[in-house]
Amino acid sequence: MSFNATRPNLLAAPGVAWLATFMVVPCLLVLSYAFFQRGVWGGIEYTFTLENFARVADPLYAKIFLNSARIALTTTAIAILIAYPAAYAISRAPRMRQPILLFFAVLPFWSNYLIRTYAWMVLLNREGLINNMLRSFGYTGEPLSLLYTEAAVITGLVYNYLPFVILAIYSTLSRLNPELMEASRDLGAGPVRTFFRVTLPLSLPGVAAGGVFVFVLSIGNFVTPALLGGGRFQMVGNLVYDQFLTANDWPFGAALGAALIVTMIVLLFVQARATARASGESREAQA
Amino acid sequence: MNAETSPILRIESVAKNFGPVVAVDGVSIDVLENEFFALLGPSGCGKTTLLRMLAGFETPSAGRILLEGRDISPLPPEKRPLNLMFQSYALFPHMTVRQNLCYGLEMERLDKAEIRRRVDETMATTDLTQFADRKPEQLSGGQKQRVALARALVKRPKVLLLDEPLGALDKKLREKMQLELKRMQNEAGITFVIVTHDQEEALVMADRMAILKDGRLLQCGSPEEIYEAPADRFVANFIGVMNFIDGRVTEDRVFEAEGLRLAVVNARPGPATLAARPENIAVGAPGERLAGTIADIAYHGLDRVLHVKTPAAPVPLQVRVPAQGGTAYQVGDALSLKIDPARCRLFAGGGAGAGG
């Protein structure tokens, strides 16, 4: 092996070591619990069993899985629909102004996730800002039940992960060679057809990256559904949380976690494949 | 009026400013039908802005652009029967070569069979048939360049605009493509307007050319006209190699510089600059006219260029002599130069103006 080939591997070593020690090993430990029985008073009884995985497939839990997937998918779709025009606008703004606009897009990250989610509770509750405003505009009916709904959960998730999607889409759009869009106009396509036949297809890797990110973070989220969903909308994240901290059923919690991780890995793999296939094209597009 | 010589494209006092910056300053040019026309100038001279106004990506601040007598300046790029070949080629990376070529015809809503026929035909004439199903990233620079050209040609534009089309190619390929482009222009019977900063390229390819500097048109004409009779000192210096000798014209029509006296006709008395091409200076025996010594010799294969130090000019004069046969020159040799005043230009003062 040549010197030049080994050096990048050496440079990656600290990162790889960190991930292996503090992420892979603990994950494997927890996952290994999934193959043992639950102790009578909680804890683990080291008798091999596959029963925990059978329980994951139980219709009750499968339904929660599907429900989480549905919420995560809705969140992803809404986030992309909001983020794309924003990212497009930022990428078309004068070069000097783009960093400022991006700064505003990621500004929410400067405050704590919990605080941001509590802020939504303040906005949405029956005595909250939105209901108060409605009343001041002359609305006299029963206050709207905005909080503790699925819509509230989705709103919270979209709000929290939107900056990731904006950044991901912006990064592909800003690297597109503007002459490609001009070439399309020159060849007879109007602005709309240029967007759908050139700009959009070439920015799909960014959309996919942002989308998978939101989906993966949303489907495993437990803070937002717990606070904004009020526990009435159990998502997989809450279920895992409950098994470990409330029901004291670590093996079942581990099995649920394993199912979740496998789902995410499959998704990330599919996305990575799609991006690898498209990256040749986007490299070309940046020429 | 003869169809051969009627202007297909008329640029009428076109100006463009970006805020306080004047990029193009009242340029008027007529481009004739079936002509290979070059817009030539150093970077920042406004040639690319002018081309982008022709394509429709910039709107003139003043003036009009007429295509076959019709004002096209208010039209967006997609409504103009001109096509642009981009400097970066701008091939769609998510489409194959065939799809790139089809794109422009699909926008015209032609039927599938017609599109197929025209694309196949264009791919055959540009030698691209074997690459039809490749993506741009699988092509070499020269192949991409052909795809970019084919994608524009398949639209059968009234005028094809080319922005530094050979800039990205290496020297050998560039020289081959210069002739190739000229052949294709001939075969397609389409008017080409090419932007370039390379004067040699313009001389080789263009039927006529326009020299721009600081947004202004300095001279427009055939390569021979511009090479033989440059309008001013800048053009003279920009096109080919030119020797300049600063001096003055006396009352009795003699150009005088240190060590040089040359009878000239039609020259106003006063300070003047004599401009002579290296091939218009001959080497004579010592004692004749301008005396000098050889400071350097550059071998160019067919000929040698002697750099001769003379009292008349601060930089050595370049003199072209045949490489084969003739005298063997050595650095340090003393010789004298004969300048043919009939083949020289005389610029009054330091700048514009003509004489000789």
Automatic annotation (TrEMBL), chain B:
<dbReference type="InterPro" id="IPR008995">
    <property type="entry name" value="Mo/tungstate-bd_C_term_dom"/>
</dbReference>
<dbReference type="Pfam" id="PF00005">
    <property type="entry name" value="ABC_tran"/>
</dbReference>
<keyword id="KW-1278">Translocase</keyword>
<dbReference type="InterPro" id="IPR017871">
    <property type="entry name" value="ABC_transporter-like_CS"/>
</dbReference>
<protein>
    <recommendedName>
        <fullName>Spermidine/putrescine import ATP-binding protein PotA</fullName>
        <ecNumber>7.6.2.11</ecNumber>
    </recommendedName>
</protein>
<dbReference type="GO" id="GO:0005524">
    <property type="term" value="F:ATP binding"/>
</dbReference>
<feature type="domain" description="ABC transporter">
    <location>
        <begin position="9"/>
        <end position="239"/>
    </location>
</feature>
<comment type="similarity">
    <text>Belongs to the ABC transporter superfamily. Spermidine/putrescine importer (TC 3.A.1.11.1) family.</text>
</comment>
<keyword id="KW-0472">Membrane</keyword>
<keyword id="KW-0813">Transport</keyword>
<dbReference type="InterPro" id="IPR003593">
    <property type="entry name" value="AAA+_ATPase"/>
</dbReference>
<keyword id="KW-0547">Nucleotide-binding</keyword>
<dbReference type="InterPro" id="IPR027417">
    <property type="entry name" value="P-loop_NTPase"/>
</dbReference>
<keyword id="KW-1003">Cell membrane</keyword>
<dbReference type="InterPro" id="IPR003439">
    <property type="entry name" value="ABC_transporter-like_ATP-bd"/>
</dbReference>
<dbReference type="InterPro" id="IPR005893">
    <property type="entry name" value="PotA-like"/>
</dbReference>
<dbReference type="InterPro" id="IPR013611">
    <property type="entry name" value="Transp-assoc_OB_typ2"/>
</dbReference>
<comment type="function">
    <text>Part of the ABC transporter complex PotABCD involved in spermidine/putrescine import. Responsible for energy coupling to the transport system.</text>
</comment>
<dbReference type="Pfam" id="PF08402">
    <property type="entry name" value="TOBE_2"/>
</dbReference>
<keyword id="KW-0067">ATP-binding</keyword>
<dbReference type="InterPro" id="IPR050093">
    <property type="entry name" value="ABC_SmlMolc_Importer"/>
</dbReference>
<comment type="subunit">
    <text>The complex is composed of two ATP-binding proteins (PotA), two transmembrane proteins (PotB and PotC) and a solute-binding protein (PotD).</text>
</comment>
